[in-house]
Specification:
Length: 357
């Protein structure tokens, strides 16, 4: 019962994290929760986890605006998972798992909504996983690993971090070489422009021939650049004669001159050829798998990656997401971690047993 109450309260706080972190806001400021619509503080008596949302029927007490259902879902999910952790695991392991849950839920929501994995959360999770391995015998105790003292557990946790980060970072590097640029040649010149975000939750977009690409999907590092060949450029309505335009994360380069994107109001032109930088996956994914590795050990990596691939492919098929379309991978890595926790470890045990024969 107490674990459920704690879970619901933490879930309420996680809603703050989910809302504020992508907007660059401090979690601690403002101190009080506020309505996303009217921005007024919510009194404590109408901010009771789960109950307040149900009693008010998902509306703000002040302005009557709708409060999204995901707020109560996060509180219910955190509550249920905390209860399950306390019921099915010994106290030390349960507490370690609860701390992991409190980080993985906002990571899942933020990546699903914004295609961003906040590395501050994954670094915190990695630290908790490493430190927790000193006190907890292991969230999953493999049959073939035997009893281990704290130093061996820390070693396994550390190797889990190295394996998780190393595997996905290698995939990013290989993907950059194989699929790092998407080149499109048009038969006739097509219009392009930069589209300003319409809300705090949107990104700047590059739009060509009616197809929009989020800024974050193109620019991961300073060396990434978007190349345009065609017929000139207009900056704030002023024509700039040139045959090639280079766009980087913070600037536009044309005719040997640089224009800071934050200092201009509009950029547009026509192009016959565009080369868009792209990534095999986001730069936050290796940090997330590394975090999972600290909790579950290096032995979990194969099952987690296989589970994430299967669940991601299944979701893409059901959602009819075509090839080349961006898909947040973080939630599926976490799904792979759940598969490991709920029995995937037995597959690893069976494999090791078979290999030893």
């Amino acid at each position: 019962m107490l674990s459920g109450v704690i879970g619901a309260c933490i879930g309420s706080f996680l809603n703050v994290v989910i809302y504020r972190v992508p907007l660059g806001m401090k979690v601690s400021e403002p101190k009080r929760s506020f309505c996303p619509g009217c921005k007024k503080d919510i009194p404590w008596q109408w901010n009771i986890p789960i109950l307040s949302w149900l009693l008010l029927r998902g509306k703000c007490r002040g302005c009557g605006g709708k409060i999204a259902v995901h707020y109560v879902l996060v509180e219910i999910l955190t509550c249920a998972l905390f209860v399950a952790a306390w019921v099915y695991f010994p106290p030390a392991e349960a507490i370690l798992l609860m701390l992991g849950i409190a980080l993985l839920i906002p990571i899942t929501w933020i990546d699903g909504q914004h295609m961003i994995i906040p590395t501050g959360l994954t670094w915190a999770g990695s630290a908790i996983g490493l430190i927790g391995s000193i006190f907890a015998g292991g969230i999953v105790r493999l049959n073939l690993q035997g009893t281990a003292d704290w130093s061996e557990r820390v070693l396994r946790s550390g190797l889990g971090w190295i394996a998780g980060f190393g595997i996905l970072y290698a995939i990013i590097l290989i993907g950059k070489v194989l699929f790092g640029r998407q080149k499109t040649v048009f038969e006739t010149a097509e219009s392009w422009h930069l589209k300003e975000p319409e809300s705090d939750q949107e990104q700047l977009q590059f739009v060509v021939a009616g197809e929009a690409t989020d800024w974050g999907d193109m620019f991961f590092r300073k060396s990434d650049k978007l190349l345009l060949k065609g017929h000139g450029l207009k900056i704030d309505g002023q024509a700039i004669p040139c045959n090639e335009v280079e766009i980087r994360g913070e600037e536009i380069i044309a005719d040997g001159k640089s224009y800071k994107i934050e200092e201009i109001e509009s950029a547009e032109g026509k192009t016959t050829e565009v080369v868009i930088p792209r990534e095999a996956m986001g730069s936050g994914d290796p940090h997330l798998l590394a975090m999972l590795g600290t909790f579950f050990g290096w032995q979990s990596m194969l099952i987690i990656i296989m589970g994430s691939c299967v669940t991601a492919l299944t979701a893409a098929l059901f959602a009819r997401i075509g090839l080349g379309r961006a898909l947040p991978y973080g939630p599926f890595l976490i799904a792979g971690g759940i598969i490991w926790l709920c029995g995937g470890w037995a597959l690893w045990d069976s494999y090791v047993e078979w290999a030893r024969r």
